[in-house]
Amino acid sequence: MYDFAVVGVGPAGARFARRAAESGYDVVAFEQGTVGTPLACSGHVSTDIWEYVPETAKADLFQNRVCGARFHIGGPDSAAYPFYKREEISNVIDRVELDRTLAGLARDAGADVREHHTVVDVDERHDEVALTVSHDGETETVRARMVAGCDGPTSRVRRQCGLPEPEELLHGVLAFDSAPDDSDFVDVHLTAPRFFAWRIPRGDAGVEYGLAAPPGRSVNELFEQLTDDYDVETEHFCSGAIPIGPPERVHGRRVFLIGDAAAQTKPFTGGGILYGMTAADRAAETIDPGDPATLRDYESAWRSALSREIALGHWLRRAYSLPEPVQRVGLRALSGEIGVHMDRPSSFFSRDHLRKVLGL
Ligand SMILES: Cc1cc2nc3c(=O)[nH]c(=O)nc-3n(C[C@H](O)[C@H](O)[C@H](O)COP(=O)(O)OP(=O)(O)OC[C@H]3O[C@@H](n4cnc5c(N)ncnc54)[C@H](O)[C@@H]3O)c2cc1C
């Protein structure tokens, strides 16, 4: 019997598998497809990302540096309200390569990472969890003392174990124009209901156009409107769900959720790569597979790391739905040089940032 079975090898699953294997546990991790595919993510992350991969990986992952965002209430021709820092705030990275790198690190640490293995059933018992795993048309039963559900926004582990669903699932879409662009501002358009559309320069990898909003027909229509407004033809269209939460509880008797499965995302951007890996670290530090009581320690550890930021992120997101005249006044008042960290809305209220806003 394994100590931990991990379902899903995205950033959260790969990070947890690596950290648990490094602690000496016997870890198996199942990925239903090929690690990193299909792509449904911008890979726009704070520079904290480099703490999670070796220095040598940077050359393969890095695509562009970003120093700020231009906010627009309308399309590309509308007034722009820039928010920026003098140094880089964030990076655009190759998300497929990130997942491959993180999975490689998990394997190097001793985790048994198996691609093209789909977990089709989860049976949480008193003293173990039995997973039914399908591979090449065959199924096998794998037993583990605990199971980490890292299987993304529409998590099967979450559903089968009766854990609460996220309060909301947004629909995100994106596509690419191949013209290289290494400029250092992203554009954010508050044209989608309760969220936004974006343009991200990705260096030699071209430009990404994307949009997220509550599901409905309007998502694709608004995306077409965005690319028409920019007068571009895009290719490699992809889409995915963005969970907004968090739910009340992300653990059961012997099962726990990490990453998008636990809706550990930023409500004001939908970004979840770094929050998921932060929670994965808390899980690896607190959970003893022989002691189900430690699942409660994980629950409090990840909430103490992230729940304040998530709560403040909900407040920031409310600004996307304010009446346009109020948005205009707010953006005009707050735009300019900022002192915020993109993963920490609390930094918006820091003394440094408030001094900047007040011009002190
Ligand atoms: C359009 C869009 C743009 C985004 N842009 C950004 C961004 O710029 N920055 C950012 O930080 N975040 C972004 N995100 C969010 C980010 O993609 C997620 O937060 C992140 O991928 C979550 O990682 P995860 O490991 O929890 O889940 P995932 O990356 O979804 O990984 C889950 C894995 O589980 C596998 N799996 C699922 N079910 C099973 C099963 N039954 N058996 C075996 N394997 C299974 C899947 O194949 C997948 O590989 C974006 C999301 C979308 C939709």
TrEMBL record:
Pfam families: FAD_binding_3. Residues 4-168 form the FAD-binding domain. It comes from the Archaea. GO terms for molecular function: FAD binding; oxidoreductase activity, acting on the CH-CH group of donors, NAD or NADP as acceptor. InterPro entries: FAD-bd, FAD/NAD-bd_sf, Geranylgeranyl_Rdtase_fam, Geranylgeranyl_reductase. PANTHER family: DEHYDROGENASE (FLAVOPROTEIN)-LIKE PROTEIN, GERANYLGERANYL DIPHOSPHATE REDUCTASE. This is Electron-transferring-flavoprotein dehydrogenase. It comes from Halobellus clavatus. The lineage of its organism: Archaea, Methanobacteriati, Methanobacteriota, Stenosarchaea group, Halobacteria.
